[in-house]
Amino acid sequence: MPIQGSLPKGDYDYVIIGAGSAGCVLAARLTEDPQARVCLIEVGPRDRSLFIHMPAALTMPIESKTWNWRYVTGPEPHLNNRTLGQARGRGLGGSSSINGMVWVRGHPSDYDQWQAEGLDGWSFADCLPYFKKMESFEGGRDPNRGGDGPLKITRSKADHPFYEAFLRAGEAYGLPVARDYNSGDIEGLHVTQATISGGRRQSTAVAYLHPVAHRPNLTVLTGWRADRVLLEGDRATGIALRRGRETAELQAGREVILSAGTIGSAHLMLLSGIGPADHLRASGVTVRHDLPGVGENLQDHFVASLMFRASGTRSIASDLSLWNRPRIGLEWLLTRGGLGATSFFEVGAFFRSGPGAAYANMQHEFLPFLADFQDGRVRIDHGYQYFLSQMRPKSRGWLRLRSADPDTHPEIVFNYLDDPADADEMLDGLAQTRDMARQAPWAAMGGTEVAPGAEVRSRTEALEWMRRIGNTEHHPVGTCRMGHDSMAVTDGEGRVHGILGLRIVDGSVLPYIPTANVNAPIIMVAEKIADRIRGRAALNRQTLRHNWLTP
User: Which residues form the Glucose-methanol-choline oxidoreductase N-terminal domain (predicted)?
Assistant: First the structure.
């Protein structure tokens, strides 16, 4: 059935809320069974906008009220009580339609930790076959990479002098080069791999949903909002929907599956009366099931941006001037090439904050120009920018209701830098980043540090600077985490503890944030749980061939 806005009659086996990174995967995989009737519901619009598909235009959907939920977090108690924007995708493809398209699996130890803490079947050896299943890597199939999956993954060109200087400066500092950071050699410098193919964004809507939208057992609804899960006793039976003043209910014969994201799924659980009982009562919501972990365990990658002016070198900022943008857009429309075909995040690095880190716990993402967000617009200037991110923070935040009104955004506090160890790691990473930026390859570019700036010298001054400017990496996870303790919300297959017929499959179930931009791990989780929903045996465990790329 084609994608539509009108509500069809009839019941379904599975009702999936949210057509994002996980929901599109589930819709495609579950409807491989022709007997399974699936309805996928998305409050946002279809992904028809050119700004969704053109990689270089990624700031436009992020700044849009149409494509972005535009959540606000905070006040953040350890960031001078600042409030921060939190971008979450709204529309087919969800956050995979508005993200930076950087493709990172994470470190094997990330997933081995899940297994060690009681989540059987979630070691990296269990996850690797699903990472391979979902991708068609530009380099082709090999023992570590997939060659015929839905998502096309390509290597960035990285052919600007600033990209080359970033890589050579990192080498001069002593970082290794990761030949394929998604084959287990994550530590070191790399040219980025991206969900871009033929100059076009590869969202999960593009890769998974649109190719199967014709299936007669799949219904895709856009423009409908899920207000609450319908419950009969301890069983989920369907979903209450709304579009404007029109309301409706859809029944799910087998399962209701929440794939509305780390913020959306936890919010919907609370609105449905599933969560911490005292908080629900205080918010005016009838308690249907006391589940104290809903909304807790919120995690994100904290980021600080180091900025450098460049003199005597023509930067990409010149090409991105207002009068050049129509030319960039026209070239992309005609050829799917040029600057319109890149997200500009073409090089990066993973490194350790110090000898105490078991494996790389810091990330560099890099831009060959300066980008400053002000008043909903992006100001671009000459220079280059290191984004320093902490990969495995100890600090934990929360999500809570402000109101029982579904249209009121929840309270979201990430609690960045609450744990002193997080501040120490960031300060150590900052010191190393400044050293990398002083290496000889940058000298020819005439780089001058403008943030933090020469006046910021001591660790105390650097921490004060981070509290002033630190921000989100837009990688929230964990609010409905998998596990078996009293604060776990879901089991190892995404089933909600204590509620039959209700499952959560998205970033909210991740127990710990991985060493990765989280889109790839979330898609992997959806692929893996889709097999469990269908009653299929898990794919055979596989181990990485670390010597595969050795000359």
Answer: 89-112
Taking the C-alpha atoms of residue 367 and residue 345, their distance in angstroms, rounded to an integer, is 6
Structure tokens at 354: 């110090």
Strands 289-290, 135-137: pairing is: unpaired
The position carrying tokens 């959306």 is 264
Structural domain includes residue 404 = yes
- Give tens-digit pLDDT for 113-137: 999 999 999 999 999 999 999 999 9
For residue 43, the tally of other CB atoms under 10 A from its CB is 21
Q: In terms of C-beta density within 10 A (0-12 exposed, 13-18 middle, 19 or more buried), how is residue 181 classed?
A: buried
Q: Of 526, 410, 519, 412, whose CA–CA distance to 472 is shortest?
A: 412
Q: What is the pTM of this model?
A: 0.96
In residues, how long is the chain? Answer: 551
Residues of the chain with pLDDT under 70: 1-2, 4-6, 8-9, 312-314, 373-378, 547-551
Instruction: Find where tokens 């000889």 sit.
Output: 440
Q: What is the pLDDT of residue 378?
A: 64
Torsion angles phi and psi, residue 220, rounded to 5: -115, 120
Q: What is residue 346's predicted lDDT score, i.e. its pLDDT?
A: 98
Rounded distance between C-alpha atoms, residue 256 and residue 249, angstroms: 12
Binding residues: 99-102, 507
Helix H or strand E segment including 108: helix 108-116
Number of domains in the chain: 1
List, as residue ranges, the binding site for FAD: 99-102, 507
Those residues whose C-beta lies under 8 Å from the C-beta of residue 182, and which sit 6 or more positions away, are: 103, 104, 105, 131, 137, 144, 145, 193
518 assigned to some structural domain: yes
The catalytic residues are 475
Partners of 197 in beta bridges: 200
* 216, 29 contact by CB (below 8 A): no
Q: Which domain CATH number covers 346? A: 3.50.50.60
Is residue 549 domain-resident? no
**Is the residue at 161 inside a domain?**
yes
DSSP-derived 3-state class of residue 449: strand
